[in-house]
Design a protein that fits this description.
Blueprint (H helix, E strand, L loop, with lengths): L5 E6 L5 H13 L3 E6 L9 H8 L3 E2 L5 H6 L2 H6 L3 E7 L1 H9 L5 H8 L4 E5 L3 H5 L1 H12 L3 E2 L3 E4 L5 E5 L3 H14 L6 E6 L4 E2 L5 E2 L6 H12 L3 E6 L10 E5 L3 H10 L5 E4 L6 E3 L20 E3 L3 H6 L8 E8 L3 H12 L3 E6 L11 E2 L1 E5 L2 E4 L3 E2 H19 L1
Parallel strand pairs: 1-2, 1-4, 2-3, 4-5, 5-6, 9-12, 9-14, 12-13, 14-17, 17-18
Antiparallel strand pairs: 7-8, 10-11, 15-16, 18-20, 19-22, 20-21
Helix pairs in contact: 1-2, 1-9, 5-8, 10-14
The protein binds cytidine-5'-monophosphate.
Cytidine-5'-monophosphate binds next to helix 12 and strand 17.
Length: about 400
């Protein structure tokens, strides 16, 4: 099932590196070609000979190796694959990835690659829970780096907790999904994300505080399950999630047109904070501040509701239309009414009151409202909310099959 797929496996320095030897075998059994980079730390735990024997080829260790560079340059090595897998990914390598350091072959390849990356972290529980590691993980997740594990359990030093590298079968499943063979393989999905901006004149506009982090994380999570994702994004300061086709728009009208152009789609997730109003008296030339003149009057007109339009799109209607409700009070009650009013199937409701930290933050507390009822999810990183939602979407499509 991985026939002909080319994996670049980076093995960094942790005791879990022994599992990566088995991972090489299992990947090759499934038809994948595996090239390996072994870091200096990794070579303390497994030998280059074991790695190259199992991989059926040479193992790459040095960045300034003349022999390696003559055979394949390090930039080509980083790109000549379908997926980069980092297993184990140590706290140090995660930090280097998050910070963009390139001081050895592994970190240089990770900085130079334009391929999707899947990491399997492995470390001591205190290193895992350290705010520095958690911040690095959030940075990497926001960039669309996929992750499998770690799991909780006994650790090498006699301690117990989160930090054990995912088991080989779990990594294989994640590799398969990352390569498009996942639960949503072949399913067309559209996601709206970010704010829309509505111009007042050529230099001024009305905007809102949406960062796009949740919507982009959802697009990444759906793509990680193999979906064909069209992400329609308003202006955001985020990297494009890997594996998604990104359509950049500014206004609500452009977002609606792009969403309709992305149909047919089996699923629509409308996470964008679409401006409710646009400026009706847009001025084609910059409005001038004349001395003594009153401030200009800006008149507003209602924008189209993208979620409601998609939910009423007749034969083109996505089988599952998911909306968001950002509320500051009576969150669930208002969201339930919104689900009915918009004609969508699910609503993900969240509290965006000042102090909730939702807008622009890294985590979110949401409620999932479906026709069956309301689920209260715990406070979770946005990437985890995204993964859970993607799982629920996959399960819903599987049931409806
Ligand atoms: O009405 P409200 O803005 O609270 O609804 C939020 C939900 O509706 C979100 O899913 C948002 O993406 C969607 N929406 C939309 N088009 C609009 C306004 C909201 O798709 N014009």
């Amino acid at each position: 099932m991985l026939d002909g797929r080319r994996i670049l496996l980076i093995i960094s320095g942790g005791i879990a590196a022994y599992k990566s030897l088995d991972l090489i075998r299992r990947l090759r059994e499934r038809g994948a070609e595996v090239r390996c980079i072994l870091t200096a730390g990794g070579a303390q735990f497994v030998t280059p000979l074991a790695v190259s024997t199992l991989a059926g080829g040479r193992v790459f260790q040095e960045i300034f190796s003349l022999t390696d560079e003559a055979e394949i340059g390090h930039i080509t090595l980083a790109r000549d694959c379908d997926l980069v897998v980092v297993a184990p990914a140590t706290a140090n390598l995660l930090a280097k990835m998050a910070g963009g350091l390139a001081d050895d072959l592994a970190s240089t390849a990770l900085l130079a690659t334009d391929r999707p990356i899947l990491m399997a972290p492995a470390m001591n529980v205190r290193m895992w829970t350290h705010p520095a590691t958690q911040a690095n993980l959030a940075t990497l997740a926001a960039r669309g780096v996929r992750r499998v594990g770690p799991n909780a359990g006994p650790l090498a030093e006699g301690e117990s907790g989160m930090g054990r590298m995912a088991e080989v079968p779990e990594i294989l499943e994640a590799v398969t999904a990352a390569l498009g063979g996942g639960r949503l393989a072949g399913r067309r999905v559209l996601v709206t994300s970010g704010p829309t901006i509505e111009p007042i004149d050529p230099v001024r506009f009305i905007a809102n505080r949406s960062s796009g982090k949740q919507g982009h994380a959802i697009a990444a999570a759906l793509a990680a399950l193999g979906a064909e994702v069209t992400l329609i994004s308003g202006p955001v300061h985020l990297a494009d999630p890997p594996g998604c086709r990104v359509v950049r728009v500014e206004t609500a009208a452009e977002m609606l047109a792009a969403a309709q152009a992305a149909l047919p789609a089996e699923v629509a997730v409308c996470a964008a904070a679409v401006a409710d109003w646009r400026v009706e008296n847009y001025a084609a030339a910059k409005r001038k501040k004349e001395p003594g003149a009153p401030p200009p009057v800006i008149s507003l007109a209602a924008n189209p509701d993208i979620l409601a339009t998609l939910s009423a799109a007749g034969p083109q209607r996505p089988r599952l239309a998911v909306g968001f409700a950002a509320e500051t009070e009576n969150v669930v009650e208002h969201a339930a009414a919104k689900r009915v009013r918009k004609g969508c199937d699910w609503i993900v409701a969240n509290d965006v009151s000042p102090g909730s930290g939702t807008f622009g933050g890294e985590s979110n507390t949401v409620h999932l409202l479906t026709a069956e009822g309301t689920e209260d999810w715990p406070h979770l990183p946005k990437a985890e909310v995204a993964r859970r939602l993607a799982d629920r979407i996959a399960a819903a499509l599987e049931t409806a099959r």
